[in-house]
Amino acid sequence: MIALAQTPLDRWLPKLVLCLRQYNLRFFTADVIAGLTVGLVALPLAMAFGIASGVTPQAGIYTAVIAGFLISALGGSRTQVGGPTGAFVVIVAGIVAKFGLSGLFMVTMMAGIMLVVMGATGLGTAVKFIPRPVTIGFTNGIAVLIASTQIRDFLGLQTGAIPSEFVGRMQAVFSHLNTIDPRTTLVACGSLAIIILWPTITKRIPGSIIALLAGTLVVIAFHLPVDTIGSKFGGIPTGLPALHLPTFRADLILPLLPSALTVALLAALESLLSAVVADGMSGDKHNSNVELIAQGVANLATPLFGGIPATGAIARTATNIRSGAKTPVAGMVHALTLVVILLVAAPLAKYIPLATLAAVLFVVAYNMGEWREIGIILKLSRADKAVWGATFALTVLADLTLAVEVGMALAALLYIYRVSQTTTVATVTPEYVESGRAHMLQDKDVPPYVSILRIHGPFLFGTTDKLAEETEDLKKFAAVIILRVRNMTAIDATGLHALEVFSDRLQKTGRTLLVCGAREQPARMLEQAEFVNHLGRENILPHVEAALNRAREVNTSFEGLGKEIAADLQRAAL
């Protein structure tokens, strides 16, 4: 990892500028290898996202080139890779169906302006006020919608035009199941099997690329009469996209404003989530405001070349890091790799079967769905389940804009309710005073292998980042960390997720987390969500006195590790 020198201006400089101060040939070599790998991964995804969004496959590639280069060059993350993503597929398809390409270009540029303003004014932090049940709800919904749009191409159904609404689409699919094409289905199933099973052979070459090559070769070799990019779109033009100014219609500004706001919020949310994932994998810390400005600039630029909305892509970012990327140069190389493919191999794209791209999107939908989170949500309160359920149902059955609006409204009401429940009025009795002694720190002996953290007030969505900020450098903490939550008056799904992430981070470094003093509502939520089992029931204590006793028991089991952590603490102090 590159150690970046800090100056007062650094908080507004792109991460690329900071990294180039200490750039060398070793970093360049690693970045080129990573960029080439991610470029190959991005190719089938970009085409698939373009087709699923109701535009051409080259529109997806152009977006990956323009947005991918700009987001890496101007962004606030060292390893973030930008481009078209599954989050936009549903809303983009809806905009194209209702307002045409000119409407889509207007929405993308309006969202770009909003993102630049959010980054320049520091409003990017407002994204944290979207609670976890809402984000999980619309992520689940988007995944279902993406999968539903690919059934026709996967099975080779002869349906004609398919309705954009989920219910109408599924009715059309089921009513035409008698038109399944066995050859198309065989190509699709083979492609899906390759994508799923290829990582067991090697992870160096992406399974989607192997499936793309295999599917294309099979179609060419056996002259299979299946739908391809050539038969559906006439192929992909060779060369770079032409610059053109989109048609601007003032009368569409207000009708498109809700869609533009949804695109901006989705872009901000997904890009910052991706940047956080990148931080965890690379050990870096992204700059949220600079990142949002870069996202805004990218979305202002892509419509000029016929592109669609773009944001940070979690899967491609993770691939970038695993491939050895060191700086934003890797993301720029990924974009240039796609340019070379456009210049050299574009004519071959006409043979790519749509069934293979459908298989790629099925895997994307499964991976982005966060299905395991549903089980966690269902263990929470009825209110949390209602927020998730409403967001999920409206995403699938209505539209994403309405789903986010309703989900946020419900979450805001839930927030007000939970905060109101934290207010209590009671008479102070001798028993109350006596029961508080076990929670006091003033008369306790805290050994050197123990660090104590406290959370004061409601630990709800919008506040959980404070725990991450306080514990950013784990080397300054001892082997046992006691999290004192006696004054944490309420917790929600987002807060629980933050505690789980914190616990996992500590476990990876060999540290032990103890939680003590939970009040009625937090204690009930910790039990309901099975956080007690996640952490270990023996590590949930009634008060700090019991937590210190437990810390002494834990310390005897890893004294060697305690010495290593003590050395880290000493180095941090110096």
Topology:
Layout: H1 15-20, H2 25-52, H3 57-74, E1 82-83, H4 89-121, H5 132-155, H6 166-175, H7 182-197, H8 207-221, H9 229-233, H10 253-282, H11 288-301, E2 311-312, H12 314-322, H13 329-344, H14 354-368, H15 372-377, H16 382-397, H17 400-421, H18 430-435, E3 450-454, H19 465-470, E4 480-484, H20 493-508, E5 512-516, H21 520-528, H22 531-535, E6 540-541, H23 544-555, H24 559-573
Parallel strand pairs: 3-4, 4-5, 5-6
Antiparallel strand pairs: 1-2
Helix pairs in contact: 2-3, 2-12, 2-13, 2-14, 3-11, 3-13, 4-10, 4-11, 5-6, 5-14, 5-16, 5-17, 7-8, 7-14, 8-14, 10-11, 10-12, 16-17
Report on this structure.
Helix 20 links the parallel strand 4 and strand 5 (512-516). The model has no long low-confidence stretch (mean pLDDT 87). With 574 residues, this protein is mainly alpha-helical. The chain has 24 helices and 6 strands. Strands 3-4-5-6 form a 4-stranded parallel β-sheet, with helices on both faces. The protein starts with 14 loop residues before the first helix and ends with a helix. It has helices at 15-20, 25-52, 57-74, 89-121, 132-155, 166-175, 182-197, 207-221, 229-233, 253-282, 288-301, 314-322, 329-344, 354-368, 372-377, 382-397, 400-421, 430-435, 465-470, 493-508, 520-528, 531-535, 544-555, 559-573, and strands at residues 82-83, 311-312, 450-454, 480-484, 512-516, 540-541. The chain folds into 3 domains: 11-131 and 139-233 and 243-368, no CATH class; 372-421, no CATH class; 431-573, Transcription Regulator spoIIAA (2-Layer Sandwich), CATH 3.30.750.
